[in-house]
DNA sequence: CAGAATCCTTACGGATACTG
DNA sequence: CAGTATCCGTAAGGATTCTG
């Protein structure tokens, strides 16, 4: 990775493409990361267990997301060379610290989802077609 | 939107596709929402101002993201029918409440980005090609 | 100024088949 | 069991052009 001059002022320029927040959101903002962290928070789990508990995730995305989390040092992958092989996933220390901010976000979501949904429906009820436009 | 039987147990089944957290992340987890909320937190702004301050955002994505936020009731859009027209964007009350959880996430990002980057580099340095495989 | 509309490319992600 | 490899459709998003 190239160190840009901007990095020294990153905290003051959170709107650059390479700011920390943006990089974290790239990891956390996808469909599956939060769910995986959520399950692992409750306890270590093996591949098939995660697959079962996270409804709708494909094998490909589970693998891919776990690899990403492992690469970021948020999840530890342990292979037990039995037959058949057993692989256990666990949150690392860093991974566990991610839980709190995510929980805050979830809390916000639960608290405001009703209002958001209502606002959406109200918004969708209004016709925004400019006057005089047909079809 | 269709009401599914699952909705009654949503809070107990956070791993369903339509759970609150996931819906919020679909909004907040994209590249731009956080940045827009960040700018608007500092004060109301008009379209061109947002465009200028959020580096790298295209006109299309700015419009699209603002529309989404407006639809969710998180941002208020005010049109001043002058010539040329002036449009001001502001956070709503709900929008302002989003700031805190997002700030937590940003804080986490700043605090852990170093470790994450280091972990990534370490991960990328080890060869994961199975023994005996060429190419 | 603040967008709407269009085109076009990329990459995300699902389905499937195969392996140690 | 826990993946890898491949194919493929969709959609996200950039660049460009046009408008009230």
From TrEMBL, chains A, B:
Presence of the UniProt keyword Cell membrane in the record: no
Start and end residues of each HTH hxlR-type domain: 19-117
InterPro entries reported in the protein's UniProt record: HTH_HxlR, WH-like_DNA-bd_sf, WH_DNA-bd_sf
Coiled coil: none
Keyword entries, A-Z: DNA-binding, Transcription, Transcription regulation
MF terms in GO: DNA binding
Stored PROSITE patterns: HTH_HXLR
Protein name as annotated: DNA-binding transcriptional regulator, HxlR family
